[in-house]
Amino acid sequence: MSSPARHPLSVTVITLNAGDALRACLDSVRFADDIVVLDSGSTDQTAQIAASFGARLEQQPWLGFGRQKQRAVELARHEWILAIDADEQVSEALQASIVAALSAPQHRVYAMARCNRFLGRWLRHGEGYPDWNTRLFDRRHARWSDEAVHERVVADGDVGRLQGDLLHDSAQTLEHYLAKQDRYTTLAAQQIVAAGRHVTLTQLVFSPLVRFAKFYVVRGGFLDGIPGLIHIAIGCWTSFLKYAKAWASQRAGQG
Predict the structure, then answer these.
(1) What is the residue-averaged pLDDT of the chain?
(2) Which one, of 45, 212, 47, lies nearest residue 127 by Cα?
(3) Roughly how many angstroms between the first and final C-alpha of the chain, as a whole number?
(4) Which sign, positive or negative, has the C-alpha torsion 30, 155, 150, 187?
(5) What global pTM score does this model have?
(6) Where does residue 249 rank: exposed (0-12), middle (13-18), buried (19+ CB within 10 A)?
(7) Is the pLDDT of residue 1 over 50?
């Protein structure tokens, strides 16, 4: 029996020296009808790996996360988009759910639970799971926001939810993860300053404390053992750091 007809699907991935993770990512989306890899100047094996999976490699100087991902969407051949990162993989259960949704869409935009692997453990509690991400959408009804970091899909209607996990291997090493968070907090601080938001002592003090109480205690992050504790503690520190960097920038601007 033939499979039921479904809407064709384009997968979009943005890359920069993503060769270590890209192979597993692209292998997990072989069911797609079109794969766009939008690269911003890789010097590793990213191009060769993309070609080996039949993906279309396009080049674009870095625009910031939101605008870069939206550019990839614009380059896609089909209206339905699955946007994933190079260090993410579509699980078999999620693939089945995506195919079913495209066969008879009940929504124009869908979110999926992202399961984060951190320090060798898949986090199933706290802020690590379910980390709902809107990634499957009809581009006529949704688009990526313009934020340079913490970008999101903005939809013009209800967002459905899919079964199955998007698997995210969040860091190769703790050092790599910390370096990435340092870059993200700098970008987040720049956004705060650009928006003219005044940083308060309350934000500096209570933002990390509230975050810890919410994710470690209320949402059971303690059940993920030491990796869960470290993951949430770093999240609290980055919450403090983005406000500290924004405060320092604002103070320097007043000097």
Answers:
(1) 94
(2) 212
(3) 73
(4) positive
(5) 0.85
(6) middle
(7) no
